[in-house]
């Protein structure tokens, strides 16, 4: 039994009639390398069954604390039903990318059953060119981007022949502790909460306005500014100063507003070698080029909708703070960076340079933050109040304006072919989440075997033409490639 962290619980608290808290990925597979040239749902179930003991979140279920007085726990599911979690469906002919994405969007829009381990997998047959797909979704309360990639790695192999995995040792599944025991533990934690807050406040106050939306609370920005000056003076010494933090205000866009429960999804790949060629030509990083590609794609999309704002978009960029010692552990070890995305700049070279400059400033602002600041902020409120505050914040953002315009996430992956039950992995496209607070658009990219695999999730009503964004990413790569050619010729 292990307790969820305050940050893990926020992904549970964020769920509503229009918001789901799970993330996942779409794996497109070539079954010709599998035994008999086929990949069946029985093959997937057999693979997971052999490796289930290596993937804790797949056999954990939630145990709620009575009256929500404390954060819930993960406990072993004594009635685990693999057949329930791994399902099979098929697409009608011709089984193209758009049909696959539409099916994934429909499954992604459905919440997970909290009475069971919080994941599902769907083997999708009937794709054109003889391919198959495996869509998995796991609740964000159990994994972040890096731990999700590690969980995926448990089910992958480096060759078509699955590696040997030692079977689990004999163990008994313990039943949940008595309710009185849970209540007693919750009472002790509540009694210590004032001490925890007192210890956290001095460390957190200077960074209060870094949390999206908090700056809108009357007095919060002023308090953060004052305490931040004191903290910077203590850190830098007398006579030295840092630039004032600019306040980032999300402009209005067509993809910001109250989201519905419906989703659309689109996916596509870009060659990593070309991205690296561009970053080398300008002396930037791969992530700089990824952000520039997103800025280019959104500039084109907003131009099509006659909605280019006068100011940059405000982008939430998740960052992993997982240490080497935490490798292989579940849960969330993340922080967030808030950065402007200059989609209002028409000139592609000027837009690229501004993306890099804005990211550098954002990283400089982020550097003094404690690695655990997001976890510490989440832990400052008691469990019951944390749930109420999360829902209130989502409702407030949906009724007024978003805390940020969108989320852009870049998850590192492996640069070699992988196989699932013998079938070669052709691409793995992230399928993330959207909320009222973070906007109706999420762009997540994962590198794999010489490619950048993009997955874009949107609110169906706010962004009905999501596939245009995939086309615009490709146009943006061509645009940056020409700039790199010109720089090389110069």
Automatic annotation (TrEMBL):
Catalytic activity: an acyl-CoA + a 1,2-diacyl-sn-glycerol = a triacyl-sn-glycerol + CoA
Gene Ontology CC terms, in alphabetical order: plasma membrane
Region (Disordered): 235-255
Keywords: Acyltransferase, Glycerol metabolism, Lipid biosynthesis, Lipid metabolism, Transferase
Pfam families: WS_DGAT_C (PF06974), WS_DGAT_cat (PF03007)
Single annotated GO MF: diacylglycerol O-acyltransferase activity
InterPro entries: Acyl_transf_WS/DGAT, CAT-like_dom_sf, O-acyltransferase_WSD1-like, O-acyltransferase_WSD1_C, O-acyltransferase_WSD1_N
Positions of the O-acyltransferase WSD1-like N-terminal domain: 4-290
Domain (O-acyltransferase WSD1 C-terminal): residue spans on this chain: 331-480
An annotated GO BP: glycerol metabolic process
Transmembrane segments: none
This protein's pathway: Lipid metabolism; Glycerolipid metabolism; triacylglycerol biosynthesis
Documented EC number(s): 2.3.1.20
Database matches in PANTHER family: O-ACYLTRANSFERASE (WSD1-LIKE) FAMILY PROTEIN, WAX ESTER SYNTHASE_DIACYLGLYCEROL ACYLTRANSFERASE 4-RELATED
Family of this protein: Belongs to the long-chain O-acyltransferase family.
Name this protein carries in UniProt: Diacylglycerol O-acyltransferase
């Amino acid at each position: 039994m292990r307790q969820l962290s305050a940050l893990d619980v926020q992904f549970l608290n964020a769920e509503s009639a229009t918001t789901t808290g799970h993330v996942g990925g779409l794996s497109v597979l070539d079954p010709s390398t599998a035994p008999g040239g086929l990949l069946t749902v029985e093959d997937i179930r057999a693979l997971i069954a052999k490796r289930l003991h290596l993937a804790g979140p797949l056999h954990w279920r939630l145990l709620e604390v009575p009256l929500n007085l404390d954060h819930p726990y993960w406990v072993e599911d004594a009635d685990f039903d693999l057949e329930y979690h791994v399902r099979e469906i098929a697409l009608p002919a011709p089984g193209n990318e758009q049909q696959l994405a539409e099916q994934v969007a429909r499954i992604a829009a459905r919440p997970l059953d909290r009475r069971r381990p919080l994941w599902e997998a769907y083997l999708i047959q009937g794709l054109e060119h003889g391919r198959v797909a495996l869509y998995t979704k796991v609740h964000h309360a159990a994994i972040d981007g890096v731990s999700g990639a590690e969980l995926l790695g448990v089910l992958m192999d480096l060759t078509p022949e699955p590696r040997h995995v030692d079977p689990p040792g004999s163990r008994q599944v313990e039943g949940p502790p008595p309710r009185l025991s849970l209540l007693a533990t919750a009472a002790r934690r509540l009694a210590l909460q004032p001490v925890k807050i007192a210890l956290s406040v001095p460390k957190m106050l200077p960074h209060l306005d870094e949390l999206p939306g908090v700056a809108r609370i009357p007095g919060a920005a002023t308090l953060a500014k004052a305490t931040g000056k004191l903290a910077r003076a203590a850190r830098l010494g007398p006579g030295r100063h840092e630039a004032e933090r600019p306040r980032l205000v999300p402009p209005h866009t067509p993809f910001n507003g109250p989201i519905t429960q419906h989703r659309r999804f689109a996916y596509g790949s870009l060659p990593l070698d070309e991205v690296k060629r561009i970053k080398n030509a300008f002396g930037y990083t791969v992530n700089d080029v990824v952000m520039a590609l997103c800025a280019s794609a959104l500039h084109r999309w907003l131009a099509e909708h006659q909605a280019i704002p006068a100011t940059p978009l405000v982008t939430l960029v998740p960052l992993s703070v997982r240490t080497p010692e935490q490798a292989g552990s579940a849960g969330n070890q993340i922080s967030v960076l808030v950065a402007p995305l200059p989609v209002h700049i028409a000139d592609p070279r000027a837009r690229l340079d501004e993306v890099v400059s804005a990211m550098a400033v954002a990283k400089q602002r982020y550097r003094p933050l404690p690695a655990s600041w997001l976890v510490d902020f989440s832990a400052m409120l008691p469990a019951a109040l944390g749930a109420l505050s999360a829902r209130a914040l989502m409702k407030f953002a949906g009724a007024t304006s978003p805390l940020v315009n969108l989320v852009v996430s870049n998850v590192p992956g492996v640069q070699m072919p992988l196989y699932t039950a013998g079938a070669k992995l052709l691409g793995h496209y992230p399928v993330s989440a959207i909320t009222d607070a973070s906007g109706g658009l999420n762009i997540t990219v994962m590198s794999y075997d010489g490619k950048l695999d993009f997955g874009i999730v949107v609110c169906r009503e706010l962004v009905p033409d999501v596939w245009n964004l995939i086309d615009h990413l490709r146009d943006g790569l061509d645009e940056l490639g020409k700039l790199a050619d010109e720089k090389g010729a110069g």
